[in-house]
Amino acid sequence: MRVPRLTPRRALLGTLLCSLSVAACGPAPEAPAPDSAPSGTQQQQPVVYGTDNRTDVYAHADATLRARAQQSTVALMNTSDYTVNATTGVVTFNASTLQSAYNLCSTERFLSDLTPAFCSGTLIDDDLVLTAGHCVTSASSCTSTRLVFNFYRTSATGMQTVTSADIFSCTSIVARQQATVNGRNLDFAILKLDRAATPRFTPAPIRAGNNALAAGTNVTVIGSGSGIPFKIDSGGSVRDARATTLDYFVASTDTFGGNSGSGVYENSGYTVAGILVRGETDYVANGSCNIVNKCTETGCRGEDITYVRPAIDAYCGVATSTRLCAGYPPPPTPVTFTFTATNTNSAQQNTTNRNVTLAAGQTLNFGTCSVAGASGTGDTYLRLYNGTTQVASNDDSCGTLSFASFKATTAGTYQIRAGCYSSGSCSGTVAYTIQ
Q: 214: burial class by Cβ within 10 Å (0-12, 13-18, 19+)?
């Protein structure tokens, strides 16, 4: 397993977390393209299984999948990755070619494609994009992220024109998770755009229900692998459905760094079934240059794809949408309390506390992020206790802010304790809901 690239403090935290929970430390998230990665984004790149099925949008035979790429897919970029002509509004991209970015041998595919994208996403409502949680980790990374439509080839030598009208800003992270929660390894984010993308673009439909995908189910990935213009890979299939946990499934998709957050579709029905999040190592050395790492169709470990339903459940627990939340109860009104703290030894002393009564089966969502009304300054740390027993905690669910979810198995009075990482100082508003 390739070790994720982290800031020094995050690297130490990751080591501590891995020592506590093996389930949380599988292969690292998909990597952004090399010159486009936001600071602190974790890196890991996947692989080709059997035949390389990546196809440019213009060349794919399936009209519905072409439409999903053209109408529903976005590339996540930084503002430094493109320039907008002040007169015409036409966008040019500031990035290396794929060959240059990865030192690829001349035998490889898509060598002249530019690599401005660091992740991918899917439009799922008028102003909502679904992506991976590790792609956008905090309010500040949301602010710096741009979501770009129309990033695809129209021919072997031509690109669809991208204008300023095709570029959207991220205004907030409405729902996000990148952790093992109640035994489920989850990695998703739903981002709110600065304006509606419809009717110009069309949201992709979400797979109904919460059933496991059967092993052997054919799936398609659409996104910016290695940061290049959208590719469609409709040759993957499910290897392991993880039906007992329904957190992610494993499939043989030909996906690359930059495919993180890509929508993964069922080939029958063309609904979004999951979000591409993790995978095998991608490029390997071949003399003085690199080539795509290839596995047999049944070889290597496969690519991890977060099921879409946990993301929708999280969103509909805090917000409403006619398109996404039919059948969900209205989200509860959050309760809030404020705190200012210092020297809390990671929320183990000098904390601000709030008691919450839960019935068996109720879920408590609490955070300085991800819940309406939540906010924080500095590096917050939250813990939840049942008497003297800690039952949940979180440090960095949203960058340096915190969010946790806990489902009570027994009724009782629980206590939220709000503090700061290590001996630092912080402040914020803790918001919580009970469902």
A: exposed
Q: Whole-angstrom Cα distance, residue 362 to residue 407?
A: 6
* Dist CA 343 CA 328 (whole Å): 41
Q: Check residue 334 and report its DSSP letter.
A: P
Rg over CA atoms, the chain: 21
Question: CATH assignment of 335-434?
Answer: 2.60.120.380
CA 7 to chain centre: 19
Helix or strand or coil: residue 92? strand
The amino acid sitting at 162 is: V
- Which is the CATH superfamily of the domain at 26-318? Trypsin-like serine proteases (2.40.10.10)
DSSP output for 340-404? EEE--TTTTSS-EEEEEEE-TT-EEEEESSSSTT-EEES-EEEEEEETTEEEEEES-TBTTB-EE
Domain boundaries along the sequence of the chain: 26-318, 335-434
- Asked if 114 and 125 touch (Cβ cutoff 8 Å), the reply is no
Q: Within 10 A of 420 (CB to CB), how many other CB atoms are there?
A: 29
Contact 352, 417 (CB under 8 A): yes
Digits of tens for pLDDT over the chain (435 positions)? Answer: 222 222 232 333 333 333 333 333 334 454 444 444 443 333 344 467 777 889 999 999 999 999 999 999 999 999 999 999 999 999 999 999 999 999 999 999 999 999 999 999 999 999 999 999 999 988 889 999 999 999 999 999 999 999 999 999 999 899 888 888 778 999 999 999 999 999 999 999 999 999 999 999 999 999 999 999 999 999 899 999 999 999 999 999 988 888 999 999 999 999 999 999 988 777 889 999 999 888 777 777 789 999 999 999 999 988 899 999 999 988 889 999 999 999 999 999 999 999 999 999 999 999 998 888 999 999 999 999 999 999 999 998 777 899 888 989 999 999 999 999 999 999 999 999 998
Distance CA 73, CA 291 (A): 27
The answer to whether the peptide bond before residue 329 is cis (omega within 30 degrees of 0) is no
